[in-house]
Amino acid sequence: MTLPTFPTVDLSTYVTWMVDGFTGLVSSNAGLVIGAGVVMSFVVLAIVKIKGFAKKAVR
């Protein structure tokens, strides 16, 4: 008795397309991505500082 064979699906072209698209998107917008990360880190730092000043003012 032999088991039935299932059709194989070749996803390599789709995976390659997705990887190429992602790397292209990141590399073409690298400055924007880095800038957004810097801005977000400054926003978090500002929130922490404001909370610290608010706690000192309440004392």
Order of helices and strands: HH
**SS strand fraction:** under 5%
Mean pLDDT: 89
Radius of gyration: 25 Å
As a percent range, the share of helical residues equals: over 70%
Intertermini distance: 82 Å
Helix and strand content put the structural class at mainly alpha
Record field, number of beta strands? 0
What low-confidence regions span 5 or more consecutive residues with pLDDT below 50? Answer: none
The biggest sheet amounts to: none
Q: Could you explain how this protein is built, in words?
A:
- It is a single chain.
- The protein has a domain at about 35-59.
- The chain starts with 11 loop residues before the first helix and ends with a helix.
- The chain is mostly helical and about 60 residues long.
- The longest helix is centred in the C-terminal third of the chain and has 29 residues, at about 30-59.
- It is elongated, with a radius of gyration of 25 Å.
- The protein contains 2 helices and no strands.
Structural features:
single chain, mainly alpha, elongated, 2 helices, 59 residues
Question: In a nutshell, what does this entry contain?
Answer:
The protein is built from 2 helices and no strands.
Write the SSE topology.
Blueprint: H1 12-28, H2 30-58
